[in-house]
Model the fold of this input.
Amino acid sequence: MPTEKSVKPETLVQGISASHGITYGQAFLYIQSDVEVPSYDVEDEKRPAEITRFEHAIVVTRQQIQKIMAEVDKNLGAEEAQIFDAHLLVLEDQALISETIREFETSGKNIETCFDKVSQRYIKAFAEIDDEYLRERACDIRDVAQRVLQNLLGQSSQNLSQLVEKRVVVANDVSPSDAAGIDSSQALAIVTDSGSKTSHAVIVARSMKVPAVVGLRDLTKQVQSGDWLLVDGYEGVVIINPTQDTLFRYGQIQLQKKGYEQRLMEANRRPAITLDGVAITLRANIEKVDEAALVKEYLADGVGLFRTEFLYLSSGRIPSENEQYLAYKAIAESLAPAPVVIRTLDLGGDKPMAGQAHLFPKEDNPFLGYRAIRFCLDNPKIFKDQLRAILRASIHGDIRLMYPMISGREELARANAVLAECKEELTNRRIAFNPNLQVGTMIEIPSAAITADLLARDCDFFSIGTNDLIQYLLAIDRVNDRIAHLYEPTHPAVIRTLKSVVDQAHSQKIKVSVCGEMAGDAVYAPLLLGLGVDELSMTPPLIPSVKYLIRSMSLSDAQKLASAALQLSTAKEILALCEEFSRTRVKAS
Ligand code: PEP
Ligand code: MG
Done:
């Protein structure tokens, strides 16, 4: 580790461990906020200069957009770069410019106030038009207007794609679309003021294999870009300007952990078989097509959850049927004959699409709102494009399909009816697909858990999304750091619900997987298996530690653990039992 001389005193900030690892590097402070527009009167003699300022800001904005276009063209391709054509057109809109100048001449206010007023009027008018294409223009105008205002006010705009040197990202929050834009080779770690273990940005950090600590409250106020930070993703600690003693101590810890992880990786080559001879299926959760490499590296039994919304979030637009087909085909072919469970779009909640406000209007309770299957059933064109893409790709490997956030039998029937329509359309167009494509339902809403026996009649498998199921069962917002300590996976309500879902599924002869973060935690995995869960699916880097534990325990002991847990009345007691179980198995092996 480098040994820089600290200027400020060493300060330790405790947060929540979200992704393992230790790193040391300089901070990249990322603060996103709306531009605040000051309003004041402009004296007569300064009025010509005000117009010149406006014209200059327009020219600078155009140059910035052209620069971004060139970068996007180089990194992502010409089609993606064309998205910015619409932004350039906004700057060429004579009506917007001449109305701003008219407003300036009549009101006598500064040019920022006038431009903001006129552009807001345009945004509102476009946002209300009953035509999807024109409504999208509202977002283009908003983006460009923010940029022009920043240039007028001399502020620089920031986004995470500006991360071009290896840095620790320090942010008040990282939205999933921010996370999707991070160059994984440049982020040393991600540390945030807010968030919890199951926020989606954290899940992305985990698949990028970088340490992450969340819930650090006001870290962004304590750190400046360029400060040296030590991030301990194991203990959820960030140390600002660590002393040389601290760096030395952490250097030792890092060596120990690295050695331990290497041993785990070696052990990972062996099959996931318990001491009493039961083979356990361990699949991978992925967000991007290129993570197929991770699936292979960690020897997962295929993919148990492909979160397809990241295809949408990383490009910032709705991908076409064909683009999706190519992505799904690529992953299926690369992992065949292993299965790939593709989950249909789960946007909304903490995964809104930036710049698509017409599709995702602001909501008071986004987690209880317009999300996942609700959004898809309400936007059949988007849903059908995705279903046809999955069906077409299904002949290229063992693809399975899964719906998120199903709340009951009627919703499942509606989704299946849309799927049947898509099959019919493809048949009529003589396009091949697997007619026996397996269809699964995620169980992540209490109403689905309670009526699992009914849902099991209309699908081929279940996958329990414990991240959401726990948040809805316990009424704990999964991304709120203030109540993160109340998010208890071992709450008796959770354990009983899991047991009930497994029993209902098995009575209807279908299999149950768990793909929430609980599955990848070596403390909870034995409990899940003991409760009768058939498969576990997790972020690939977590597979070695879960597999190690599986190889050190017997399933019959895990079943006893589950029976004992079901008798207990508090989350703490059950957690203690699970911890004891893992600890003794790992020690004994
Ligand atoms: C879950 O809710 O457990 C799940 C796997 O889905 P997501 O984390 O994407 O909401
Ligand atoms: Mg979920």
Observations:
- Residues 305, 307, 346, 444, 465-468, 515-516 surround phosphoenolpyruvate (ligand 1) (CB under 6 Å).
- Residues 1-6 have pLDDT under 50 and may be disordered.
- The two ends are 33 Å apart (CA to CA).
- The longest helix spans residues 47-75.
